[in-house]
Amino acid sequence: xxxxxxLLSFILIIAVWASADASPLTVVDxxxxxxxLDGPPKRIMSLTPSNTEILFALGAEDRIVAVDRxxxxxxxxxxxxxxxPFNPSLEQIVSFGPDLILSTYGxxxxxxxxxxxxxxxxxxxxxxxxxIYRNILLIGRIVNAxxxxxxxxxxxxxxxxxxxxxxxxxxxxxxxIEFDGSDPxxxxxxxxxxxIDVLVQLAGGANVAARSRTAWPQFSLEELxxxxxxxxxxxxxxxxxxxxxxxxxASRSGWSHLRAVRLGAIAAIDSNAISRPGPRIVEGLExxxxxxxxxxxx
Length: 298
Fold this sequence. Notes:
Layout: H1 2-21, E1 25-28, E2 34-37, E3 44-46, H2 49-57, E4 64-68, E5 82-83, H3 90-95, E6 100-103, E7 120-123, H4 129-142, H5 146-167, E8 174-178, H6 195-202, E9 206-207, H7 221-227, E10 231-234, H8 246-250, H9 259-262, E11 266-268, H10 271-275, H11 281-292
Parallel strand pairs: 3-4, 3-6, 4-5, 6-7, 8-9, 8-10, 10-11
Antiparallel strand pairs: 1-2
């Protein structure tokens, strides 16, 4: 009788735990939408590389049923089934049986109708490091990995603080970050409202596009000559189409008027490290600070 009572108590505890795990959870995404989940999602579709990296960092990779075509980190992400992140086939999406889709602006709108089929969609579009931290904590809460998420964010904050401390009293060189130089007369860069602009400031630099009207402006040669950056950083050096190199940039018509070109101050950076708002964004900050202040990051 005593053993039977213990068994019943054990079963009751397990039932309570299961009930707690299945409790509805209402969260708010970056669009301000309230999304109610019936319980921790078991089948997650990630349509941005940053969200894929967050899920892996939180140990939730076994719940990922599919990812976007650019999710390539960590290496295990490459083994996940692929879907088109923009204008996706709803039939294909449904065939994976997801109960939660993590997306971003521009990719989520066609998916919102899936809510009627019980497939929840959340949109993440961080603009600052605090936004990134908040999203990591939120995803940690969703997948029952809150402690792991808190530890990850704490470690990220410590690494950011270390960079900021090293550059606090350093001069702030003017920097132009090129994201797409397919049109060398008007390359794309990062402006205000982008988390990359925040990274430049934290790394001890002055973004020459900081006063642009949009977060992702095109910069004309005339604007560049007026700004005359001390350093040009290429995040399109490994682009699949029209990859740029310091040599190509130096040979562009009219670019010899730029101080950075004349001094050979042109460097490449891993675009994924500075453009994916996930755990590796701190690595991007460290790389950026090392290019801006090499004497302080040896």
